[in-house]
Amino acid sequence: MKFKPLQDRVLIRRLESEEKTAGGIIIPDTAKEKPMEGEVVAVGPGTRTEDGKLHALDVKAGDRVLFGKWSGTEVKIDGEELVIVKESDILGIVEGSASKRKAA
Residue 42, SS3? Predict the structure, then answer.
């Protein structure tokens, strides 16, 4: 893929949500909500401060992040559906895989 976000924008690949609830009920595709968790694919260089210095972003490619449900712009690049969001729309970085197991 050859796409580089500009300024403080971040390209995210949504991570698929569970197809079953904790009680074992299977959720059909039509009832699923869009996942709010994703993997950062690419990041822009950052924003410029008033004095012209570059302020780098806090996220980097490969980070797992949580972002707002209605945040960003959905795009299709190389047949893959991705989301472009501003860094301010990212709620936080998910560290480790243990946090997902605790939530279930």
Answer: strand
Q: Do 16 and 81 touch, CB atoms closer than 8 A?
A: no
| pLDDT value for 101 | 44
Q: Which domains does the chain have, with CATH numbers?
A: 9-103 (2.30.33.40)
Q: How far is CA 59 from CA 28, 38, 63, in A?
A: 33, 12, 7
Q: What is the pLDDT of residue 99?
A: 44
pTM of the shown model: 0.74
The whole-angstrom separation of Cα 13 and Cα 1 is 13
Phi, psi of 103 (to 5 degrees): -70, -30
Regions of the chain short of the pLDDT cut 70: 1, 17-35, 97-104
